[in-house]
Amino acid sequence: MEHTSLLERILRGIALCVVVVFFMFPILWIVLMSFQTNDTILRVPPSFIFEPTLANYKALITGKLETSAASLEIHFLRNLGNSVLLSVGAVALSLLLGVPAAYAFARHKFRGSEDIAFTLLSFRFAPPLLVLLPLSLYFQKIGLADTYIGLIWVYQLICLPLILWIVRGYFEDISPDIEYAYRIAGHSWFTTFRKIALPLAKPGIAAAGLLAFIFAWNNFIFALVLASADKQPVTVGALAFVTASGIQYGQIASAIVLSIAPTLALALYAQRYLVEGLSLGAVKG
Amino acid sequence: MKSNKRRKSFFSRAALPYVLSLPALIVCIGVLIPFFTAVFYSLQRFRLSQPWARKMNWGENYLNFLSDPGFWSTLKVSLVYAGLTVGLELLLGLGIALLLRRRSRVNNFVSIMLLMPLMTAPALAALMFKLMTNPGFGILSYFLTLLGIEDFRWGSAPSSALFTVVLVDIWVYTPFIMILLLAGLRSLPTQPFEAAALDGVPRIQQFFRITLPMLTPYILTAVLFRLLESIQQFDIIYAMTQGGPGDTLMVFQVEAYLNFFQSTNVGRSSALLMILWAITFVISNIFIKNWLRLRERARGEV
What we know:
The complex is a heterodimer of chains A (about 280) and B (about 300). Chain A is an all-alpha fold and about 280 residues long. Chain A is about 75% helix and about 0% strand. Chain A contains 14 helices and 2 strands. Chain A has a two-stranded antiparallel ribbon with strand order 1-2. In chain A, strand 1 and strand 2 form a beta hairpin. The mean pLDDT of chain A is about 85. Chain B has about 300 residues and is mainly alpha-helical. Chain B has a single domain (about 65-300), classed as MetI-like (MetI-like fold), CATH 1.10.3720.10. In chain B, helix 1 (about 1-40) packs across helix 13, helix 9 packs antiparallel against helix 10 (about 205-230) and helix 12 (about 250-260) packs antiparallel against helix 13 (about 265-300). Chain B is globular. The relative contact order of chain B is 0.12. The interface between A and B is large, with 98 and 98 residues.
């Protein structure tokens, strides 16, 4: 590796540039578009230099779009709120359910534990519609259709296996001896769990939680099947917004930017954990 | 009194793991019930629009597939989509991982940048590309006219629709394969490479004789994982074309979704999903075995 020729270094540099341009350009372009008015967007050839405007974001945030013809109402902020509520709710619930279960799976090899863990894992890979379509009929019967609670419950399908498997790996890496010592000192099981096991597995729990949040935020199909317009998160809402607003391209672009910004920010913040989490711990990042 | 207390604590200790995993168990059951319901539906003649005609027809939905050109085209499109995306993503991802192999500030920065497409919701990524391929003002359409290609209609023409969604898929998921393989590459032991360099083995041979074999478990994990997701792709295709134009992009889940909600044919929709499930079940079993082995190894090294 040390004796790389100049030609090779140049070629590597070019290849690297091509890669960066291919993967970064769409994001850059949408961000640029979100600061343009429809007039500059529709200009041919496309303009890289323009006078940036915040009008698109203003229209989304105030919920009113003033056009020359009429004033249009936009409910995009509501979708953004739904996304926050659903993702945070789903992650909170699956941490609450998943972390103790992960601890049980890691520490106590009991009958059926592997079966439960594997059933959960294999449904992580099953076609989501297979479960969703019958579920939508059941939900209508028991009145959970189109409720936040019903949606958060269904989001457990993606969040819970993720948290269970990642956090379980972290618990297994911690030697149980410390916990035994603490137990022998006369502390109860619950204090041991809370004071010793939880703090030691904290990085794993945080990583799993962040990843679960990103997956929940990016989910499209669950809400498409189960939620009506006023409960839809941004992924579904943006699609409806495109159909509804037709030619307001600037607003569409800024809606997309607002929708992807939270996950991108989280990803950059937590990039250390992403590799491990994405492969469910099969590859140490 | 004393023995009673000990007994109680023994009992609670034995029950503890079950109590802790109860919620996970409930979710398991909550998933299994709809699953078996789907199996049941798939054996029925069941249209939401004709509830009176609902009855068991056992394997008829499946038998009908044999003579149904729509089914075979769904199977074909899904397989072609999965094969194309995963194949291209593997080649690209491996190439980029090799490019970024050496730890340097620039390489680390680039690999972090590449996380961004992966963290973009696939449905939103499809919308981004929809804006960029708009015939009126899309930047990609404009680039093509600069190259002399006029009237390339991307997602709205049957000839280029598959290309367009595959492009979006590659944009979103290549970083996934790249990141996994990069982690794999960087965890390889250095001695074999040093020895090969000392012996003057050409770099191409080093790659095929040392790097590739050692990287195979990582490649397998990444490819199987992506295959599982890709054969079920819904978000990108639905957001881009809703399976159109015509039925060019009717992959399993899009077809099943439209069957359920537009033609309200629950029986056919469930049977389609069962077949998709059978395919993913086989792949996921191979994947899980492979993944567990790799996981053991990764944890053994730390």
